Inverse folding.
């Protein structure tokens, strides 16, 4: 749109300058904390000063002996995998039913399924604890997974519903008219076409479960301590640099998973 | 009735048994004096609304969300605006960097802010080094610290809905506005911003609800003396073991959140109908 002969449009320039500057500032604001925690984790000293006075891997080596932290990480991984599996199964089924439906009941269900995104998760976590206590149970890993499913399933529903709305219904009609049954049409037409959306949603649900504190706070028993709560307590009581090393590992894993999700499911496209 | 409709049942059953029922039990418990639930009473709610300590926590929490959401909006709108006008590759890179913080564990994100905001943190080192201040600023364990961190941690929730709406706006409209003589600022103010309002409001709803319930950030950056609703519920439930009162606080908090969401949602719908008119 530049017109070489025209005089400089100061108004346009001022706006570009302000918006550009705010954007650069925002990007620094967004990325700096992650970069800083990663750099701090390589410190050779016992304090969390930035920039670190020297570089070493000593705190990463120290993680090898951090039994409690390792157990918590393992618990979180198992819980997140189960949560993701259940979310994918129930979430895909539900979004097939809800998408493009005009039924009042199904619209209401959709609203209900999305509501954990808006309601305070900590209030739900406490409600779930009261509920299972009233039923005569005590918190265990099965309830913890179910609690995670409730707060993580909206992520799958959102991306899958978006993928389903892009799906051309003529393709389904073609499959049916050629004699394909419902299951075959789903497996051969619908599923491959919504797979990227489903993959991105599964990734988001996994991360949300792995990272969940408000629900785990109430539903985890002493034996199933999860990683975010372990780290939260570590930071709250004694700030030791092993926490930075664990954080560094989490950052690296997150980045790696994000790159894989971007490659395989086009994560950034799915989210907009 | 399509065949697919039955597929909603498994998730609907799970939500009925493990979402609706617990919330119902929570409401019932909040109307009783003890966990055995023998006599009905409003005492918990009377206690909450007659003790200024309690309702000032509610007020502080709701206000915290407003401050963090507004700070978020100031940065997120330009990011979405620039992103919507960038080429495909740059757009991917920006979205990737924007969602990076929300996918990194919230504990890790908050932890890095402790390194930044602490007495010997980066901000204090810079401020002392430049001679701007003579003693370290108190940023950690203050409300301003919590607002800054929440704005960073939740910014993706604001950027993405605005970006979605901005990329759908017909670029001809802005061109038409310019051809008719409106400058860039006037075009932004009279054309682009009104058209993107539905996205702005959707972003505000998501950011606001995330900010006021952000337990980890609020407790680690705010410390023990800045109490917001999630910590209040947790302390009453686990610390004081007063479940009925904790239930009442949780119900009040949820109703407050729903009221805010309903008001913002109504604004969003009127903005949308305005756009279509």
């Amino acid at each position: 749109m530049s017109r070489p002969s025209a005089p400089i449009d100061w108004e346009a320039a001022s706006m570009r300058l302000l918006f550009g500057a705010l954007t650069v500032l925002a990007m620094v604001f967004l990325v700096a904390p992650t970069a800083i925690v990663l750099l701090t984790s390589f410190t050779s000293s016992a304090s969390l000063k930035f920039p670190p006075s020297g570089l070493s891997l000593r705190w990463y080596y120290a993680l090898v002996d951090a039994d409690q932290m390792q157990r918590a990480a393992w618990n979180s991984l198992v819980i997140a995998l189960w949560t993701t599996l259940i979310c994918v199964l129930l979430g895909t089924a539900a979004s097939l039913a809800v998408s493009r439906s005009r039924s009042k009941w199904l619209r209401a269900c959709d609203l209900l399924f999305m509501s954990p995104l808006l309601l305070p998760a900590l209030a739900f976590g406490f409600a779930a604890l009261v509920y299972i206590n009233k039923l005569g149970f005590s918190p265990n890993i099965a309830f913890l997974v179910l609690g995670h499913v409730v707060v993580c399933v909206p992520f799958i529903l959102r991306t899958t519903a978006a993928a389903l709305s892009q799906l051309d219904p003529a393709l389904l009609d073609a499959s049916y008219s050629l004699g394909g049954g419902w299951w075959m049409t789903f497996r051969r037409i619908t599923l491959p076409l919504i797979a990227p959306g489903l993959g991105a949603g599964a990734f988001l649900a996994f991360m949300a479960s792995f990272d969940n504190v408000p629900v785990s706070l109430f539903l985890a028993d002493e034996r199933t301590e999860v990683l975010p709560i372990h780290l939260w307590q570590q930071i709250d009581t004694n700030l030791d640099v092993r926490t930075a090393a664990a954080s560094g590992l989490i950052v690296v894993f997150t980045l790696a998973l994000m790159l894989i999700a971007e490659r395989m499911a086009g994560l950034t496209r799915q989210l907009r | 009735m399509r065949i697919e409709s039955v597929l909603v049942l498994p998730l609907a059953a799970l939500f009925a048994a493990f979402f609706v029922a617990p919330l119902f039990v929570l409401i019932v418990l909040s109307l009783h004096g003890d966990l055995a639930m023998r006599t009905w009473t409003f005492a918990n709610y009377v206690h909450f609304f007659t003790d200024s300590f309690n309702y000032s926590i509610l007020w502080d929490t709701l206000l915290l969300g407003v401050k963090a959401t507004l700070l978020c909006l100031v940065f997120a709108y330009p990011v979405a605006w620039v992103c919507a006008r960038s080429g495909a590759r740059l757009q991917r890179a920006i979205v990737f960097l924007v969602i990076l913080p929300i996918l990194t564990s919230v504990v890790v994100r908050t932890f890095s802010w402790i390194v930044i905001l602490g007495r010997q943190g980066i901000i204090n080192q810079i401020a002392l080094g430049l001679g701007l201040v003579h003693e370290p600023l108190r940023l950690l364990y203050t409300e301003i610290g919590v607002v800054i961190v929440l704005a960073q941690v939740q910014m993706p929730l604001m950027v993405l809905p605005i970006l979605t709406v901005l990329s759908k706006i017909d670029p001809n409209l802005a061109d038409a506005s310019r051809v008719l003589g409106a400058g860039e600022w006037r075009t932004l103010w009279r054309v682009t911003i009104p058209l993107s309002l539905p996205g702005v409001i959707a972003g505000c709803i998501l950011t606001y609800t995330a900010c006021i319930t952000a337990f980890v950030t609020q407790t680690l950056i705010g410390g023990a003396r800045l109490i917001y609703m999630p910590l209040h519920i947790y302390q009453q439930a686990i610390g004081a073991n007063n479940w009925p009162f904790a239930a009442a606080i949780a119900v009040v908090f949820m109703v407050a959140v729903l009221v805010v969401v309903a008001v913002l949602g109504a604004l969003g719908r009127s903005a949308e109908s305005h756009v279509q008119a």
